[in-house]
Automatic annotation (TrEMBL):
Keywords: DNA damage. It comes from the Bacteria. Residues 22-112 form the UmuC domain. One of its GO terms (biological process) is DNA repair. CDD domains: PolY_like (cd03468). InterPro entries: DNA/RNA_pol_sf, Rev_trsase/Diguanyl_cyclase, SulA_CellDiv_inhibitor, UmuC. Belongs to the DNA polymerase type-Y family. This is DNA repair nucleotidyltransferase/DNA polymerase. Signal peptide: none annotated. Gene3D superfamilies: 3.30.70.270, 3.40.1170.60. It holds the Pfam family IMS.
């Protein structure tokens, strides 16, 4: 198959991207500034600034002298490559082979793709029009070689398509810069009066090599197709998805179990090879009647242990109703994380295998009781009880501060304290009884008060005086009075239960 390449040149890549994000910049002179050796230089400018006489490489002071009300934006290192990568991923809909070329262009291998658009002309027109509709100034050219496509896109006609094998004829009228040469080499050619390729492209290689070196010969050969160039194509990771079509509809739990095993075998093989682990997975079962049944699983830590994942999915088989039969299974790993390899000390009491067994046990409990049945809490640097702990899902996260052991805290802390009616003697004495949800609790033992001040830097309000109390049935509670003692206006609350 004859190779065909498309070069797309973004003349004002970063300025156009800024104008897309901030439409008010489209009608204003804009420059992107880079700091170099203590000076501010123009790295890029938009078309309006270019028409005003601003060029890349001049100082910001000179640019202001030309256009006093010019808009300045700071340059971020590597922003061109990141933007081109995103544009390249978007262009993959036109060809699976897209590569980044320098800091302002993309190269597409369109071999075998243009017929889907009924030819190269509608192919090129559709692609460029879509990019222009996004807000980019673009030019493109198609040729047999990368070098010829690059040259025509910048120095030839807009939307140029070079017929197969005719790149030599179209290159003759172009300047030496069309060969992707260094600026010093271009200046040497200009000094000798060689302003177009036809002036030197047919000279003997020995003469060109002696005067200008190997780089010029290499670029000519690449443009004419005598030397092949290789591209580093953009790679988009394939989704972690496995499909299993069935020759006969599956109706039994054993059949579904075997299908899950086959899907997990392929998925876990890829996860192990890439050092990744599964956190969430979705199994889609497409039935003969056109309906789809889904079940999902989750893990506390990334895992590619097939036996464990198969047990988790096996616990969901009872929720799959096959009806007339399932003809297609799709297993999607919707949550993937890297698996960190750790070195186990030989003198450690607990081994990594023991920790893995505990984590897998937690996964199975969560599958039976619900994903919110198991929660892990860590201490936080707050005095207010509601803020003193936080819920975490990552089992590897370590506490930033140690747990407080100064005063006991209830096993079950209510998210919002609930009001209660209390009978208490003189101030600072513990209550003698309280009524909660219509039930009276006679207090036999009490400890307190423990005063906890409100965090004034977060919110205003009263302090709290906490009491740990035990009723006649031996049940223990955590009560508090909000603010100082007032005979008729005391506000008491129940905030937690001890085990």
């Amino acid at each position: 198959m004859q190779k065909r390449y498309l070069s797309i040149w973004f003349k004002y890549l970063l300025p156009d991207a800024l104008a897309i994000l901030r439409p008010e910049l489209k009608e204003l002179p804009l420059i992107i500034v880079v700091k170099e050796r203590g000076r501010q230089l123009v790295k890029y400018c938009n078309d309006i600034a270019l028409k005003e006489g601003i060029k890349t490489g001049i100082t910001v002071a000179d640019a202001r002298a030309l256009v006093p009300d010019i808009i300045l934006e700071d340059y971020e290192e590597g922003s061109e490559r990141q933007l081109l990568k995103e544009l390249g991923e978007w262009c993959i809909r036109f060809s699976p082979a897209v590569a980044i070329d320098g800091n302002d262009s993309l190269l597409i291998d369109l071999s075998g793709c243009s017929h889907l658009w009924n030819g190269e002309i509608p192919y090129l027109k559709d692609l460029l029009n879509r990019l222009k509709a996004k807000g980019y100034h673009v030019r493109g050219a198609i040729a047999d070689t990368i070098g010829a496509a690059w040259a025509i896109a910048r120095f030839g006609k807009e939307k140029a398509i070079i017929p197969a094998g005719e790149q030599y004829r179209f290159l003759l009228s172009l300047p030496p810069a069309a060969l992707r040469l260094e600026s010093t080499l271009i200046q040497r050619l200009h000094k000798l009066g060689m302003y177009r390729l036809e002036s030197f492209i047919d000279l003997p290689p020995s003469v060109l090599r002696r005067r200008f070196g190997e780089d010029l010969l290499l670029r000519i050969a690449q443009a004419l197709g005598h030397v092949e160039e290789f591209l580093d194509f953009i790679y988009i990771p394939q989704p972690y998805t496995e499909r299993l079509p069935c020759l006969e509809p599956i109706r039994t739990a054993k059949g579904i179990e075997l299908a899950i095993a086959q899907l997990l075998d392929a998925l876990c093989f890829r996860l192990r090879r890439e050092g990744m682990g599964l956190r969430q997975a979705l199994l889609k079962c497409y039935r003969v009647d056109g309906r789809m049944v889904t079940v999902s699983i989750g893990t506390h830590k990334p895992s590619h242990h097939m036996g464990h994942l198969q047990k988790l999915l096996g616990m969901r088989i009872a929720h799959i109703e096959p009806a007339l039969g399932i003809e297609l299974f799709i297993l999607e790993a919707s949550g993937i994380e890297p698996i960190e390899l750790s070195q186990q000390a030989i003198w450690a009491i607990s081994s990594e295998a023991d920790e893995l067994l505990v984590i897998e046990l937690l996964d199975r409990i969560a599958m039976r009781a619900g994903k919110n049945a198991i929660q892990r809490f860590l201490p936080q640097e707050h005095y207010w009880p509601e803020r003193s702990v936080k819920s975490v899902t990552n089992l590897d996260e370590q506490p930033s501060i140690p747990w407080s052991v100064y005063r006991p805290r209830p096993t079950h802390l209510l998210a919002c304290p609930e009001p209660i009616r209390v009978t208490a003697p003189i101030p600072d004495y513990p209550p003698i009884l309280f009524i909660y949800k219509g039930k009276k609790h006679i207090i036999k033992k009490a400890d307190g008060p423990e005063r906890i001040e409100r965090e004034w830097w977060l919110e205003a309000g009263e302090h709290r005086d906490y009491y740990t109390v035990e009723d006649e049935a031996g049940r223990r509670y955590w009560l508090f009075r909000s603010g100082h003692y007032h005979h008729q206006q005391d506000q008491w609350f129940l905030h937690g239960f001890f085990a």
